[in-house]
Amino acid sequence: MKNNSNAYAALRVPDYRRFLSMRLFSVLAIQIMSVSVGYYVYDLTGDPLMLGLVGLAEAIPAISISLWAGHLADKHNRRNILAGCLAAMLCCAVALVTLAVQGDTLPKGIVLSGIYTVIFVTGIARGFFSPTNFAFLPQLVDKQTLPNAITWNSSTWEVASISGLGIGGLLYGFAGVTWAFSAIAILMAMSLLMLLQIAPRPVPRSAQMEPALVRIREGLRFVFRDQVILGAIALDLFAVLFGGAVALLPVYAKDILHVGPQGLGILRAAMSLGAIVMAFYIAHRPMGRNAGRTMMICVIGFGLCIIGFGLSKIFWLSFVFLFLCGVFDEVSVFVRASLIQHRTPDHLKGRVSSVNSMFITSSNEIGAFESGLTAKLFGTVPAVVLGGTLTILVVAIAWWKAPKLRNLHFDDAGEAQKES
Cα separation of 98 and 60, whole Å? Predict the structure, then answer.
């Protein structure tokens, strides 16, 4: 059986397995940080707006340096950039442990300032990490194996997410915030160790002597001239921006569903559980014709499930709605990642993925701020329902304005074909 038709082809590559281990440990750490920092801040303040500010503190630096990070990822050794990012996030995790240990003896304002500072620095590191990680992946496998590698990369992210969110909630609820933050530091150290076992890859050949601004403009020009890539990024951007109910889960867990940090971990894991089910399905049944149309329909389903979650006051029903959100969202994630990997030349991957990171990855944090602000102004439930409604409206606009994305098909290897 050929590698490109084998659901486990990428896993036979040793460096790719090390890459997945690095990915597993780092995402575990980031997700534990997400759930534990969020609940800790809400415990200290009781204010949903402060949850939104956590997202904003990470988004501002990530957006600010994303394009520069993509430029560097196309010009320098990608493995070494990733190592620097993981080392920085390890230092941030140690700082969180220190704040937790000293939390009872410090004024609340000092603790909150320290947390926001750590999140800000983490945002800088993740701003470099995301486009570099994306660009490094295709250097580890051949072109035929790449679609399978993308799927397993996504699946690993989801496995780490469901585990990290659940572990974060359980650690916080049963062992306390100090143990939760300590787990982050340990996992970041393990991630860095796995990365350093991967052999460095050569820097892609490109116009190395061109000024940085020229190279950044080249990446932006590539994205904005490709209606399919631009449409996929824009659709996911606004869906995540308006459908950011995840940021308000601490409010639902504590004040609406009354399930505490343990229940919060389960709710945070629900979307990832749904996504990993869909990711494994795609790994064995690759998407073919009507990939673009399927993506748009799934984003509509995502918006409807966000509305259902917002209105639910029953824990198990809320879990089901979030699970389905994860199922629908994974389709969008897979289509967008496949498009960018296959339609982008290797020497542009860092810059193009930085644009994707700037508009998608950071939109999670901007969406968290938007959700926190609207919850502060209109109430938690109206904020979530409004977000889901706007998500559906965005799909309607994309269906009308982006026909090339709507008519997108994939061939048997998972590559985008010309639109019909």
Answer: 24
How many residues can be counted in the chain? 420
Count CA atoms closer than 13 A to 248's CA, side-chain side: 32
Domain boundaries of the chain, sorted by first residue: 10-199+212-417
Beta-ladder partners of 410: 416
> How far, in Å, CA of 161 to CA of 156, rounded?
8
Q: What three-state secondary structure class fits 15?
A: helix
pLDDT digits 0-9 by tens, 201-212:
877 665 455 666
Q: CATH assignment of 10-199+212-417, given 3.60.60.10, 1.20.1250.20, 3.40.50.300, 3.90.650.10? A: 1.20.1250.20
Backbone angles phi, psi at 409, to 5 degrees: -130, 155
Note if the pTM is more than 0.85.
no
- Considering only CA atoms, which of 230, 253, 220, 331 is closest in space to residue 285? 331
Give Cα 250 to chain centroid, integer Å.
19
The closest alpha carbon to 71, from 204, 218, 206, 215, belongs to: 215
Q: List Cβ neighbours of 396 (8 Å cut-off, separation of 6 or more).
A: none
d(CA 221, CA 292): 22
Tokens coding 335: 């289509």
Residue ranges, the chain, pLDDT below 70 = 1-5, 158, 162, 204-215, 240, 242-245, 286-288, 347, 358-368, 410-420
How would DSSP label each residue in 207-222?
A: -TTS-HHHHHHHHHHH
**Crossing angle for the helix pair 177-195 and 78-102, nearest 10 degrees?**
160
398 closest CA partner among 388, 390, 386? 390
